[in-house]
Amino acid sequence: DTGVSQNPRHKITKRGQNVTFRCDPISEHNRLYWYRQTLGQGPEFLTYFQNEAQLEKSRLLSDRFSAERPKGSFSTLEIQRTEQGDSAMYLCASSREFYGYTFGSGTRLTVV
Amino acid sequence: GESVGLHLPTLSVQEGDNSIINCAYSNSASDYFIWYKQESGKGPQFIIDIRSNMDKRQGQRVTVLLNKTVKHLSLQIAATQPGDSAVYFCAGLQGGSEKLVFGKGTKLTVNP
Q: 3-class DSSP state for residue B83?
């Protein structure tokens, strides 16, 4: 097991385009989290899954954002009609129980 | 709600010295805290955690102290090494949620 895997590592997109990121958690972890991190700031919570159920969503997750975890394994985060303010590092984390989050290396999104 | 913050944005120490990074939190109902290390271009790396029923926890070269009376925790790194140079975040569990709330981070620089 190589930890939490995120793809792509970097994404540059034009404003208005849709983008999708993927997260593969540690295999035995049933909890999966998405966070967003802007330069110089700590990560901010976006949403959380327990197995395939999305149990909590932040107010940061506008209607342009959608996350899925269809089979309780990998997860995708889609941003529709991207805006320059969406430029950030998108981090995924997983855990077996709550304690001991493990983060991936993130996907850096740049909207031009 | 919870807010977590760090006292100093930057800390510079000499190699071999001990480092202390401080963090304050606002929600007295917070019952779990984690310290993370983040190197440039990477996701946060778990260092050590502590639950509110503990005052102190030790790991390899690291110690976390929790003072619930003044809502303060600290991370002590013994014999700081150049490889410890990174941004350090404290994160707290918001009561009733699995959302970690992060502070802005302290950048630790270790001088040879």
A: helix
